[in-house]
């Protein structure tokens, strides 16, 4: 089956054939061992796909975001988990859009060649939660460096990154006119002294950590853009992040639909394929329809982004619709497989866990709904 795969044939074919080398047994093994899929990320990097968004002038392939989403979709469609590597695609944006020429020259070619990985972004903190402007991590300028103290949580892929984008408060909250001011963004060498990393064992095979920051020194030249405007820079990168994740969910969704359909045709119970029953085929058909619809919003959002048009609402809607559709498709796929859906060898339970994350991270459902209510529909802010 090859549902809705006619666009960008060259990218799909090339990424798809790379992904075929990392089959179901590979992903089951890394999942079981809670290991990082190092060989897969290496292969993707060597083939140049991880530097898709880096302009050619800095050694990347200078693809559009739409094309980058096709890469990520192919990874999840093939049965893989893109959570191991998607960070590099969107973290790059913060540097690309707001970094100085010197920073871009210093880092981007080395990221493009695979020498450095920029997979981690430290924004979320245990006490602030989604209310990012309340973060407590501070960066205080002392001569030619910033001294950082605080704590982060859910900082993903940090142990497999040489670089991290870090958000910290540089002006105390009570001294800024707007709470979104006074936050700054830095490029951090993850091997620096002052970072203590404690892994969080979680529902998926996702390398994510608590980070304790104790007098971490960051050279002042690693400040991205202007001091105090970091929140804006992070927000800038978030639309790309949401659109890429939407595409991953679309890939998951098609994977679930194809897997469920194949199984429903093959599995014979009461002397007939279970797919002959409307109770089995209707939920699969409905899931397919929902993924198709979410996919349209993903392409709309990506196209607006590529045209440098405002796309906050579309990026949020694409991520929400795709995450919801893939989660529902996962549920249907599990139900279609009956007991076998719970057996690791079918991959369904793993993909079911993996896709569930995206209704919470990188932004949870309620926050998307309240964004649309307030900023698109003009309803009063609810909190
Ligand atoms: C596996 C994983 C990887 C992650 N990776 C990263 C990473 O690399 N870097 C990073 O910085 N962060 C990362 N995160 C953090 C992620 O972005 C947050 O978990 C997510 O944004 C939700 O924030 P929270 O967990 O603090 O929930 P909270 O803000 O505590 O919210 C809890 C619940 O309450 C709801 N809620 C909160 N306020 C309101 C309101 N006003 N109205 C209605 N409902 C509300 C939320 O929607 C949510 O359902 C990751 C998280 C996970 C689980």
Main traits of this protein?
383 residues; 4-stranded mixed β-sheet; 48% helix; globular
H/E element sequence: HHHHHHEEEEEEEEHEEHHHH
Shape: globular
Instruction: State the assembly state of the protein chains.
Output: single chain
Structural class: alpha+beta
Look at the structure and give the mean pLDDT.
96
Number of discrete helical segments = 11
Major β-sheet annotation: 4 strands, mixed
- Please report the distance between the alpha carbons of the first and last residues: 46 Å
β-strand percent reads: 5-15%
The strand order across the widest sheet is 1-4-5-8
Low-confidence blocks of residues: none
Could you say which small molecules are bound to this protein? Answer: flavin-adenine dinucleotide
Number of E-state strands: 10
Computed over alpha carbons, the radius of gyration is 21 Å
- Fraction of helical residues: 40-55%
């Amino acid at each position: 089956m090859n549902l809705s795969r006619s666009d960008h044939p060259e990218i799909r074919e090339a990424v798809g054939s790379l992904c075929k080398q990392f089959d179901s047994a590979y992903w089951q093994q890394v999942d079981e061992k809670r290991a990082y899929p190092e060989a897969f990320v290496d292969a993707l990097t060597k083939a140049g796909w991880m530097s898709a968004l880096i302009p050619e002038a800095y050694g990347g392939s200078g693809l559009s975001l739409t094309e980058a989403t096709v890469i990520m979709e192919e990874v999840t469609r093939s049965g893989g988990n893109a959570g191991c590597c998607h960070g590099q695609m969107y973290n790059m944006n913060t540097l690309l859009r707001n970094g100085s020429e010197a920073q871009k020259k210093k880092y981007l070619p080395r990221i493009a060649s695979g020498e450095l990985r920029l997979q981690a972004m430290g924004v979320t903190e245990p006490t602030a939660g989604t209310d990012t402007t309340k973060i407590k991590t501070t960066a205080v300028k002392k001569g030619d460096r910033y001294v950082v103290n605080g704590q982060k949580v859910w900082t993903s892929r940090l142990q497999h990154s040489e670089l991290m984008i870090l958000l910290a408060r540089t002006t105390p909250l009570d001294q800024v006119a707007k709470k979104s001011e006074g936050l700054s963004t830095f490029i951090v060498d993850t091997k620096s002294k002052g970072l203590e990393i404690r892994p969080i064992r979680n529902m998926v095979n996702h390398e994510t950590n608590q980070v304790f920051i104790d007098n971490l020194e960051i050279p002042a030249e690693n400040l991205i853009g202007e001091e105090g405007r970091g929140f804006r820079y992070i927000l800038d990168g978030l639309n790309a992040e949401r659109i890429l994740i939407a595409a991953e969910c679309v890939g998951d969704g098609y994977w679930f639909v194809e897997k469920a359909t194949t199984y429903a045709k093959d599995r014979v119970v009461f002397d007939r394929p279970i797919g002959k029953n409307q109770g089995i085929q209707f939920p699969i058909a409905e899931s397919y329809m929902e993924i198709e619809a979410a996919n349209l919003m993903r392409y709309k959002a990506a196209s607006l982004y590529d045209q440098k048009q405002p796309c906050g609402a579309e990026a949020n809607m694409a991520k929400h619709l795709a995450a919801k559709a893939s989660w529902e498709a996962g549920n249907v796929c599990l139900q279609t497989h009956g007991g076998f859906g719970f057996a690791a060898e079918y991959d369904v339970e793993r993909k079911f866990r993996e896709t569930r994350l995206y209704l919470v991270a990188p932004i949870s459902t309620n926050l998307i709904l309240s964004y649309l209510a307030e900023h698109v529909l003009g309803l009063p802010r609810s909190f």
